[in-house]
Amino acid sequence: MRVMRTKQEDALPIISLLLRREVRPHVLGLVALALTDCIIKCWPNMSAINGFAHFLSGIGNSLFLVVGYLALLLTELKAGKSRNAKMTLVIFAVTTVAVHTIKILSWSSLSRPSGIPGGYPSGHAAATFALAFLLSCRYQCLTKIWYAIAASISWSRVAVGAHFPFQVYVGSALGLFAAILIYDGLAPNKLLQELVRRAQIVLFAVVPMAAILSGLHEYENDLVLFGFGGVCFVAGVLIRVWSQTAHTKGERFCSSGPYALIRHPTLVANALICIGITVASEIIWLLPLAIILCMIAMRMAAQEDERIHLALFGNLYKDYMSKVPRWFPRLRELWNVKIASWAVVPALKREALTVLLIMLPLIKEALSHAK
Fold first, then answer.
1. CATH architecture of 203-370
2. Residues 6 or more apart in contact with residue 55 via CB below 8 angstroms
3. How many CA atoms within 13 Å lie on the side-chain side of 49?
4. Proportion of the chain above pLDDT 70, given as a percent
5. Confidence (pTM)
6. Angle between helix 265-280 and helix 222-245 axes, rounded to 10 deg
7. Average pLDDT, the chain
8. 20: closest CA among 160, 191, 173, 176?
9. Long-range contact set of residues 137-142: C-beta below 8 Å, sequence gap at least 24
10. Sheet strands (E) in 8-48
């Protein structure tokens, strides 16, 4: 179901929302990621503090993780918040498993500077940024300190030659975004969901644009990349076009076409386009970031939209939610959905800019061969 938005609903500037206390750990986490990227690129190795870098990379990292997680667990348990303690353990476990799974999948293709496999992504960076986010949510007055420690440890992994900069940056981002995704799932933040809904295009676009502009560690297999990436992209465009055909002039909401199969088809379409462009750009190591950012954008935007729909339509939308799943369609319903073929051409015209996006990876490939 899709609702036509009013100007009053989007009147509050995004900047004012970003300054709110409820999203301070998230906003400062993004700032810390950007600063970490700058530091490891501008000062990858400073011989004057080489000993300090080794301390941070080894003992400092262990102390921060052990003391930080123990402090969180004991504080939450002492306050009688066993649910928060469980959430801390879940975030630690999921982040660790996710990072090591990616390490196994890319074991030999993205090695460390020394040539030893298993360098992508940095587990130290992922763990410290996930912990920094959790500590920032619990002790907001020290948010800058937590992220400064996480950024310093992440930098140290490059300084001591344990990782390449991109491996550390992806690890840092994965740790932060995984923590945000799980934390919001267990303790929903309505303000964050509103921000994500309004800025979802940024989350969907940032990784594909980075993949197009980057030429670092390209995976050279055009058949696989353009095949898989092309299928994802075309599927996403077709779903967006189908969503357009489901609307008729003057209606406030739609529950037909793809909206009769899932509640948020355009979010699914945007995710497919994002993944398709990232893969087609040959920067496979950015794919985990694309996936997790799509998951954040999809879930939070969907939750916010559903909250708004429930407020507007009440039982009508509750009935719709009971019949139509959020993401995965019921197979028996696929044969009952109709496509308004007369509206395909106008919908394609409205999606012309989206269709042209596939040209970006092709242009990148052509330029790389021309060099």
1. Up-down Bundle (1.20)
2. 156
3. 13
4. 89
5. 0.87
6. 160
7. 84
8. 191
9. 137/25, 137/183, 138/72, 138/75, 138/76, 140/21, 140/24, 140/25
10. none
Contact 130, 91 (CB under 8 A): yes
Q: Is the pLDDT of residue 83 over 70?
A: yes
Q: Which amino acid does the sequence have at 33?
A: L
Nearest alpha carbon to residue 242 among 268, 210, 279, 203: 268
CA Rg value for the chain: 22
pLDDT at 340 over 60: no
So what's the pLDDT on residue 232?
A: 93
Question: Where do the domains of the chain lie?
Answer: 17-187, 203-370
pLDDT of residue 66: 94
Task: Outline where DSSP puts E strands in the chain.
Answer: 2-3, 253-254
Q: Are 88 and 69 in contact (CB under 8 A)?
A: yes
pLDDT at 3: 46
Q: What is the pLDDT of residue 208?
A: 92
- Separation between Cα atoms, residue 154 and residue 177, nearest integer Å: 16
Q: Which residue has the tokens 């019949």?
A: 323
Q: How far apart are CA 145 and CA 142, in angstroms?
A: 5
Task: Tell me if residue 254 falls in helix, strand or coil.
Answer: strand
pLDDT score recorded for residue 295? 94
Q: How far is CA 56 from CA 65, 81, 232, in A?
A: 12, 31, 42
- DSSP, collapsed to helix, strand or coil, labels residue 21 as helix
Q: Which of the pair, 368 or 92, is modelled with greater confidence?
A: 92
pLDDT tens digits, 209-234: 998 988 788 777 777 777 888 899 99
Q: Tokens standing for 48?
A: 């004057």
| Distance in angstroms (rounded) separating the CA atoms of residues 32 and 129 | 9
What is the C-alpha separation between 150 and 25, in angstroms, rounded?
A: 13
What are the structure tokens assigned to 229, written together? 């990436």
Neighbour-count burial for 316-346, b at 16+ CB within 10 Å, e otherwise: ebeebeeebeeeebeeeeeeeeeeeeebeee
Run of H or E including 20: none
> Which amino acid is present at 311?
A
**Length in residues, the chain:** 371
